[in-house]
Amino acid sequence: MVDLLIRGATVIDGTGAEPFLADVGIVGDRIAVVAPDAGIAAAAELDAGGLLLTPGLIDPHSHSDWSILGNRDALSTVHQGVTTEVVGNCGVTYAPIADGDEETARRALAAFGYDGEVRWRSFADLLAVVHDGGTAQNLAWFVGHTGLRRAAERAEGDLVRTMERHLHEALDAGALGFSSGLEYGAGRNASTSELEALARVAGRRDAMYASHIRNRDTALAEAVAEFFRVVHAGELRAQLSHLNVRHDTGAHEGAWEEAVARLESERRSGVDVLADMTPYPDGIGLAAGLLPDWLLSAGEEAAADALRDPAVRARVRADADRYWRFVHRGQWERVRLAVSPATPDWEGLILPEIAAANGTDEWDAYFDIMAASGGDLGAVQFMGALFHPDHVAEAVRHERFLLGVDGFTSRRDGVLGARTPHPLFFHGSQHFLSHHALRARTLPLEAAVHKMTGAVARHFRLRDRGVVADGAFADLVLWDPELLRATDTFVLPETYATAARHVWVNGTAVVSSGARTVHRPGIRLERADVL
Fold it and tell me: Residue 320 carries which DSSP code?
């Protein structure tokens, strides 16, 4: 007897294979049977005639570690069928934390709906805080290089050796590996040799490296070369995060194709590496990424104070051709303020609108936002119109690219609801299926599902996940195919996405008939849980 028999579903099993009709039985947290007309007894049955059954979606590039403490029910993501998220990306994690940085971390997390104190210091302590309180989805964690570096900078002793010690501790706690974000913050100051030292530590533990590389425009080839230097130093499995080129930022014609060719060459030489791509032409970014090192070197609060000085503003205007380089070309209409704890009334507006409302130009509007932020300068986020749609489609269909949202789980109410008025957070994962697969036909539906399930699980070595198969964990989604095709994922849903009618995490329903249940069955996928 099985606990639940899902009868007569059209199964897309996560391997890339053609759909097939089957009954799927669940016992406990595992799939016990996948067979046509299983003919077995069940404590409960669900008629899935006319519905699609897939593995639960696995987001390979998520920042939900920023918002999970304010949204343990993962409302925006589980309603899209996301059952596992790989978090801790782009180098930014709120652990380890040195004494003295806890208030900065608390304020940053408050911007994502967390109303508690920051009492943890180590990466292991953070994982305990998150998972002891329960989560709807499974989480697999990277530790961020920025967290490692900031904690080491506050400690006595050699910087790199201290970072290595923190990395060892994070790996002991179950981290998949470490990530870096080299276009902003502490990552911008990291030398290649520093990253190589950490890579050697990770390599000895058979861990991974994921990187938001140093440049994705005029120096893309050099940034990709640095990425592989780090990978080779530790002989690491690796993920080249959101490998794309922002529109009109100076990259030469063919730069992206050359970067992908390098990835293919490395794979042929035996490196286990993949890339990922985001669903929309829009994406999130850190507003401080535009600022120069000379301004940030004294710390975020000092930088914010300095930006009240007209002379400093004039100097920054002349020295801001970095990160979102289209801004330096005057294209501020592509930039929307997403998160700004000090100026929440301006959130959701594009920079020209903020400038017009305050009688300034866009640069001074930007400086006003950053000056007001004080010690929260690093928490200010933009939403930008970053990519040409054809470029998005090209990467989405490429066989070496997994499909990840590069966002975080949100909800329609409270702090998070006010700060995420964009479909990226509420339709981002489903957009790959609804828009790219079913409407635009960028790629077949079974290929899109594979890139969001089985391929992710295999690359990150998430054991027994990402497939509909006997013995696999029962992370499953039952979709209404008509809703999946018809939903306009370029707009916000009225509440939450509705095409995922039933969602199970580890055999427990987290969405039932389109409604969120009270259960939080997600677990921490530690390194012991990987192959």
Answer: -
| 8 Å CB contact between 333 and 350 | yes
Q: How far apart are CA 29 and CA 19, in angstroms?
A: 24
Beta-carbon contacts of 276 under 8 Å, excluding residues fewer than 6 positions away, are: 60, 61, 239, 240, 241, 242, 243, 401, 402, 403, 404
Tell me the per-residue pLDDT of 494-531, one tens digit each, with 9 for 90 and over.
Answer: 899 999 999 999 999 999 999 999 999 999 998 644 44
Query: How far apart (Å, rounded) are the C-alpha atoms in residues 355 and 363?
Result: 8
pLDDT digits (tens, 9 = 90+) for 114-127: 999 999 999 999 99
DSSP annotation string for 360-389 = S-HHHHHHHHHHHHGGGGGG-EEEEE-S-H
Q: How far, CA to CA in Å, does 431 sit from each of 164, 441, 445?
A: 39, 12, 12
Cα 281 to Cα 1, 141, 246, 470, 486, distances in angstroms:
48, 26, 9, 38, 20
CA distance 463 to 80: 22
DSSP string, 447-467: HHHHHHTHHHHHHHTBTT-SS
Place of tokens 């999130």: 284
* Residue among 203, 64, 228 nearest 140 (CA): 64
How do 82-87 and 57-59 pair as beta strands?
parallel
Identify the DSSP state of 95: -
Phi first, then psi: give them for residue 514, nearest 5 degrees. 85, -5
**Verdict on whether the full-model pTM lies above 0.85:** yes
CA-angle at 45, arms to 40 and 51, nearest 5°: 110
What is d(CA 324, CA 384) in angstroms, rounded to the nearest whole number? 9
Q: Rounded to an integer, what distance in angstroms lies between the CA atom of residue 78 and that of residue 71?
A: 11
